[in-house]
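User: Let's play a game. I give you a shape written as tokens, and you guess the letters that built it. Ready? Here's round one.
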């Protein structure tokens, strides 16, 4: 870990280097955000981009991918390109693993054994996954195939490897996994993603069955009785039905699409303020993606995010008051996206990996806190 100063406050981040790339864009326009929100988004962005090269590679990927999709700024292409190389390398390793049934079983066991169990949520999830050991590697492969599709990289895989990977994903019982009430009760956001990815890749479409299982698990009359942990799971699941349907911030939802999930979020009103900043930001983003950017609830959620920002560091701290930039990247990039929302979404980026061995320094130009939201 490396210590640095951000607006006078000591914070820590991991170190990693990344490399360059290229992409293409398409934009949609809906509205312009409030001035205070846009200013806050620009300030958070300035903190992260000044220290971007010190973030761990997975955080750089997450940040650059999302900032590309709401800005189309070419500055983010380098880190996306670096991720594309890593993604193809991992898929090649996955293809080697699934080619042998013994290797696949062993890898599933290894992934389960390595699953963290520090918190009660992690322990409950690990117990749940222990009942579905054969899903461990296929879950990861599914995510990586979806990422390759979003970045235009599926064609970079050999036909044999792609067929082998898709067969490995399709060979497990997704219907049983996605509709298992225990899975839904601790893993709602993840299964919402997985159902969307399976459909987008043309493997199997279980989105309707998952939606029914989710709504059966969480009928309207049960919501007020949920524990704080399961309430968060329910809200987080709702947001990921929407976010996954948007192809992770690449398209707006069409009229009426997932209207049941949108209505459920709107119906919670200020009760949503009890959840973590990450989820508040995701709810606001989900409503924006669903064409509800001007709904009063979005303004309420934005005010809550503004109130939770630390005035010294300029970022959203952890619930325990921590200011680690790497650990806080998820909630802060979401805050940048929703507070700085102007209704434009950019697809991809579609990567052209002409020389996948090339390494470049992917530092971002440090943006001063005076940078305008439009820059």
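Assistant: Ready! My guess for every position:
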């Amino acid at each position: 870990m490396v210590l640095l100063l951000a607006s006078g406050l000591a914070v820590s981040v991991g170190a990693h280097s990344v490399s360059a790339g290229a992409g293409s864009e398409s934009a949609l326009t809906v509205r312009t955000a409030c001035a205070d929100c846009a200013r806050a988004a620009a300030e958070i962005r300035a903190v992260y981009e000044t220290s971007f090269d010190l973030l761990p590679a997975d955080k750089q990927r997450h940040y650059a991918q999302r900032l590309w999709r709401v800005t189309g700024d070419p500055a983010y292409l380098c880190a996306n390109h670096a991720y594309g190389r890593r993604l193809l390398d991992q898929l090649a390793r996955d293809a080697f693993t699934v080619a042998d049934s013994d290797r696949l079983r062993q890898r599933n066991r290894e992934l389960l054994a390595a699953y963290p169990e520090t918190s009660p949520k992690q322990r409950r999830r690990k117990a749940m996954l222990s009942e579905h050991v054969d899903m461990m590697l296929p879950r990861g492969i599914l995510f990586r195939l979806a990422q390759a599709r979003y970045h235009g990289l599926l064609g970079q895989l050999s036909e044999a490897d792609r067929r082998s990977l898709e067969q490995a994903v399709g060979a497990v019982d997704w219907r049983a996994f996605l509709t298992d009430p225990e899975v839904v009760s601790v893993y709602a956001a993840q299964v919402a993603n997985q159902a969307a990815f399976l459909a987008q890749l043309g493997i199997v479409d279980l989105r309707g069955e998952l939606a029914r299982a989710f709504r059966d698990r969480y009928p309207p009359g049960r919501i007020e009785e949920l524990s704080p942990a399961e309430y968060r799971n329910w809200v987080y699941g709702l947001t990921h039905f929407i976010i996954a349907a948007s192809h992770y911030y690449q398209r707006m939802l069409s009229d009426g699409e997932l209207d049941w999930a949108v209505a459920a979020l709107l119906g919670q009103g200020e009760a949503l303020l009890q959840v973590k900043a990450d989820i508040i930001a995701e709810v606001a983003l989900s409503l924006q993606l669903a064409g509800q950017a001007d709904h009063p609830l979005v303004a309420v959620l934005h005010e809550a995010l503004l109130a939770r920002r630390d005035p010294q560091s300029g970022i959203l701290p952890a619930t325990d008051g921590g200011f680690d930039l790497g650990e806080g990247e998820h909630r802060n990039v979401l805050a940048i996206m929703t507070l700085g929302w102007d209704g434009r979404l950019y697809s991809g980026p579609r990567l052209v990996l002409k020389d996948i061995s090339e390494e470049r320094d992917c530092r971002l130009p440090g943006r001063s806190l005076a940078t305008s939201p439009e820059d």
